[in-house]
Amino acid sequence: MKNYRQLLIAKLHKMAQSPKQLTSSCAVGVFIACSPFLGIQTVLALGISYVLGLNTSIVLLVLCAINNPLTMVPIMAIDYCIGHVVFERILQMDMHSYSPTWLSWVDAKVGYALSYIVPMESFALGNYLLGGLLFAFVCSALVYVVLYYIFHRVLQQKQSQ
Predict the structure, then answer these.
(1) CB count in 10 Å sphere of residue 24
(2) I need a surface site. Which of 54, 97, 104, 154 has the fewest CB within 10 A?
(3) CA distances, 145 to each of 13, 22, 137, 142 (Å)
(4) What pLDDT digit, counting tens, does each position of 116-161 carry?
(5) CA–CA separation, 79 and 129 (whole Å)
(6) CB 30 within 8 A of CB 143
(7) Which has the closest alpha carbon to 28: 124, 154, 144?
(8) Any idea where the domains of the chain sit in the sequence?
(9) Where are the alpha helices (DSSP H) in the chain?
(10) pTM for the model
């Protein structure tokens, strides 16, 4: 198993020019995968990786590995829960008043399905969007720090051999 991990890290390292670019590509992939922008995530990944000069294939690989049909609903629920806890419970903001009026059909469809997972009265778009961005930022920052340490260590071991 250890050889497989080393082989995977070596292949990823060959795809990127530096550990910083590799970790940045992975962190951007995690950010987009955890973000609340469903439906435009691939376009965001292509655009952001082009603008920042990152490895597009790594960004898309991480995006597809994290956000897939099995993990999409839990990620949406976590996005909404974080937004609900932070904005409605901690900051005491009523995010329902900021939801647009056309959102009633989303509340009828998505809110009903999410009410089995997330304790909520009605769907608040602000909770979902802002909670998703907060969750995506925290996850991508953690991934960047951990992977930078791992890839830097692997590079140092490679150079010492």
Answers:
(1) 23
(2) 97
(3) 16, 12, 12, 5
(4) 766 666 677 788 888 999 999 999 999 999 998 888 787 777 667 6
(5) 7
(6) yes
(7) 144
(8) 2-66+142-160, 73-129
(9) 2-15, 19-34, 41-52, 56-66, 72-83, 104-106, 112-114, 125-160
(10) 0.80
